[in-house]
Design goal:
heterodimer, A: mainly alpha, 2 domains, 12 helices, 77% helix, B: mainly alpha
């Protein structure tokens, strides 16, 4: 490894450190929910290691609990994690065009909201060693937190577990709110999503639709409606 | 649960990795279709909102502590605090609210 590559790797570790710590805390609450869904510590840990996605794993637990089909699992992951595709498109413009396929395959594993955030914020082209540095702390943080949540979730007092149950949702609010503040069309789309999600959760007939299907249906219909009504000029770099 | 947990995990992992990998590996040009680009732009925010609401109201088991946590999260997120800060402080507010409600 040349000196320059080593520097980028260390820079990745530095920038990835707060992400790894945050993941540790959030995946701890995911671990608690894995346990409630009936997963063993080993199953939950492997799930986090190979998926590295909070919203996706969180939705997967709903599907596992409901014993829904594998197809429903595949479609839900596709829809919920579709944003990674957008990020992957953006990153394809951020790396050197000559970057070999092997490195492209490696970087792809670490496309998360937060790692994407620090990668796209870099000056100049994204070097693969930077991504690997960030992943070197983020992936263990996420995996270890999940494991600890499963094995230690039940030794914590109920009041602490109850408080931690809000963590994932609070993180989602932290992703949505700054964007909604900046773009009123996003804000309105989210407002509509709240209204329809509440209706589909409580209203007769539609409340029988499973949570996984509700997420998929409302996301496609409302996002498409927003895209047709308020097309976006530039979706890159945001 | 009736499904095999390892098949569920394998399905998740394969789908999620393909989503992350295909554009970065295969496509070196931007999507030109404006509607498709706009759709992809709205997807993350709409899907996170649907997952969060109304489930967040019952997450803590007490709507009063949940409400305190939600208000805290909204205020901190509005002030553009980082994800771990919003998550941690909101949890702390839920915990303290629970303690206070237990006293009265």
């Amino acid at each position: 490894m040349s000196e320059k590559k080593t520097n980028m790797f260390i820079q990745g570790i530095k920038d990835g450190f707060p992400i790894g710590l945050g993941y540790l805390a959030v995946s701890f609450t995911l671990g608690i929910q894995c346990r409630e869904a009936g997963l063993s510590a080993f199953e939950a840990t492997i799930m986090s290691l190979v998926n590295l996605t909070s919203a996706g794993e969180f939705a997967a637990l709903t599907i596992i609990k409901a014993a829904s089909s594998y197809l429903e699992m595949a479609v839900s992951q596709l829809i919920i994690n579709l944003r990674y595709m957008l990020m992957s498109f953006a990153l394809s413009q951020k790396v050197e065009p000559s970057l070999p396929v092997g490195h492209r395959l490696g970087i792809s594993f670490g496309v998360t909201d937060e790692i994407f955030g620090i990668s796209i914020g870099l000056k100049g082209k994204l070097k693969p060693s930077y991504s690997y540095g960030a992943m070197a702390v983020a992936v263990p943080g996420w995996t270890l937190g999940t494991f600890l949540g499963v094995v230690m979730g039940n030794v914590l007092p109920a009041s602490v577990v109850s408080a931690l149950s809000l963590a994932l949702y609070a993180m989602f609010i932290a992703i949505i709110m700054p964007k909604a503040k900046e773009d009123k069309h996003v804000a309105f789309a989210c407002l509509m999503a709240m209204v329809f999600s509440a209706v589909f959760t409580y209203a007769p007939l539609v409340k029988d639709i499973s949570a996984g299907s509700r997420i998929i249906i409302l996301t496609i219909v409302l996002s498409m409606a927003a895209a047709v009504i308020w097309p976006v000029e530039d979706t890159q770099g945001s | 649960m009736s499904g095999n947990i390892w098949i569920y995990i394998a399905v998740m992992a394969v789908v999620t990795y393909l989503i992350r990998m295909l554009p970065l590996t295969l496509l070196r040009r931007e999507i030109k279709n404006k509607t498709l680009r706009s759709f992809l732009y709205y997807v993350p925010y709409v899907t996170l909102t649907v997952m969060t609401f109304p489930a967040i109201l019952t997450a803590t088991g007490d709507i009063r502590t949940a409400a305190a946590g939600i208000i805290c999260a909204i205020i901190l997120a509005w002030k553009k605090q980082s994800l771990p800060v919003v998550a941690f402080v909101s949890c702390a507010v839920v915990f303290v609210t629970g303690l206070v409600l237990g006293l009265i």
